Automatic annotation (TrEMBL):
Membrane-crossing segments per the record: none
Presence of the UniProt keyword Nucleus in the record: yes
Organism: Hypotaenidia okinawae
Keywords: Nucleus, Ubl conjugation pathway
Gene Ontology MF: a single term: nuclear estrogen receptor binding
Pathway involvement of the protein, from the record: Protein modification; protein ubiquitination
Predominant cellular place of this UniProt entry's protein: nucleus
Protein name from the UniProt record: DDB1 and CUL4 associated factor 1
Span of the signal peptide: none
PROSITE patterns listed in its UniProt record: LISH
Claim: Transmembrane helix is one of the keywords in the record: no
């Protein structure tokens, strides 16, 4: 095909790729314009249920504009508890020691 970016779903994959927190707003814009480009190239609108729906893009934009802050120790405790719940007690123990967790 002359348009491998579209025919092999490469552009859709780029729209789903995880994004660095400081690049979220750029990714939202990319997704918006990529969806528009897909519609123009294919000649048909994207299905409402697809991952690149307008509602998803709007939600992603809200998330992109939100800055989330948290205490570092809280995050480390959350990670430690997750490790324990997954049966990784030894790893959790090392984290507890290295991060000086209670």
């Amino acid at each position: 095909s002359k348009l491998p970016l579209f025919s092999s779903c490469q552009i859709q994959q780029l729209m789903k790729e995880p994004v660095l927190q400081d690049k979220r707003s750029e990714h939202v814009k990319f997704c918006k314009y990529a969806a528009e480009l897909i519609e123009r190239v294919s000649g048909k609108p994207l299905l409402i249920g697809t991952d690149v729906s307008l509602a998803r893009l709007q939600k992603a934009d809200v998330v992109a504009q939100s800055r989330i802050t948290f205490p570092e120790k809280e995050l480390l405790l959350l990670i430690r508890n997750h490790l324990i719940s997954k049966g990784l007690g030894e790893t959790a123990s090392v984290l507890t020691k290295e991060a000086d967790l209670p």
